[in-house]
Hints:
By secondary structure, the chain is an alpha/beta fold.
Amino acid sequence: xxxxxxxxxxxxxxxxxxxxxxxxxxxxxxxxxxxxxxxxxxxxxxxxxxxxxxxxxxxxxxxxxxxxxxxxxxxxxxxxxxxxxxxxxxxxxxxxxxxxxxxxxxxxxxxxxxxxxxxxxxxxxxxxxxxxxxxxxxxxxxxxxxxxxxxxxxxxxxxxxxxxxxxxxxxxxxxxxxxxxxxxxxxxxxxxxxxxxxxxxxxxxxxxxxxxxxxxxxxxxxxxxxxxxxxxxxxxxxxxxxxxxxxxxxxxxxxxxxxxxxxxxxxxxxxxxxxxxxxxxxxxxxxxxxxxxxxxxxxxxxxxx
Length: 305
Ligand SMILES: C[S@@+](CC[C@H](N)C(=O)[O-])C[C@H]1O[C@@H](n2cnc3c(N)ncnc32)[C@H](O)[C@@H]1O
C-alpha cells in the first residue's frame, strides 16, 4: 500500500494497519486477517469512542501490550493460536467488564426508540438496530446510544450483554435464523416480546365491521413459545397486560393508519363512515379504546457455546 502524506497514520502505523484493512484512506473498507474475537471487541470498543475504527485497532489493541494482539497477529495456525486467543479473550473480558455488568444492550427492531431510550437511562450503552428510516428519525438521540440502519438479519453487531426484540417477529419470514442470531449475540440474556391476542388497533374492529372476516392471521406469543421449544430453548415467560388507546389528530390520520393495515380489502367510503362512528372526541384528539392487550416475554440465558 503506497504511503499517503495526508493520511492520519505515519508510515510505520500505515505499514502495520495495512495488514488488517483493505485500505487506509477511504471511508469504505473491509477488515482482514483479524480473528473473530478481536473483531467483536474492536466493534464494541469503537461504539464507545470518537476515534476511527482503524485508530482504535492501532491504539487500543496493536499498541496495547496486554491485549495479546501481537501473539494473535503472529500466530501461525498451530496450537499457539488457541493460547493467544484465550489470552486476548481474558483481556477483552476485563475491558468489557470494566464498563459494568449487564450494561450493554442491543435492540433488534428499535422502532421509534421507546425501549431504547428507557434502557439508555439505565444502562451504560445501547445499540438500536432499526431498518426503517421513518422510525429511526423518531429515535431521540442519546450520548450512550448507537443507532444502526439495518435489518437485524444483515446487521454486523458485536455481542451484547442483553439482546432485546419487542414486537418485531410478526412480519419476519424466516424466524429461526433471526432468533438464532439474537441468541448468538447475547452474552447474558435474550428477551423476545410478542402479543397474544388480536392487534389492539381500530383496524381490527373496522375489518370485523366491514366484512365480518377474521383478518390476516398474525403470529402470536404462543406460536413463538412453541417455536422456541422446537429450537431447544425452554424460556422463562412473563406476561404483561396494558391498556391501549389509539389517538389521532384527525379522521384523515385514522383513515390512513387503518388503510395501511387493512390493505387490499379496503373500502374507503364504508371505512370512513364506520370510523366516524367508532372514534370519540377527547379534547383535540379522536380516540379509539382498544381495550387491554396481553403480551408475553420469553427470556432465557443462552447456553455457552
Ligand atoms: C411494531 S414495531 C416495534 C418497535 C419497538 N420494538 C417497540 O416495541 O416499540 C416493529 C419494528 O421492527 C422493525 N423491523 C421490521 N423488520 C425488521 C427486521 N428484519 N430487523 C429489524 N427490525 C425490523 C420495523 O421497522 C419496526 O420499527
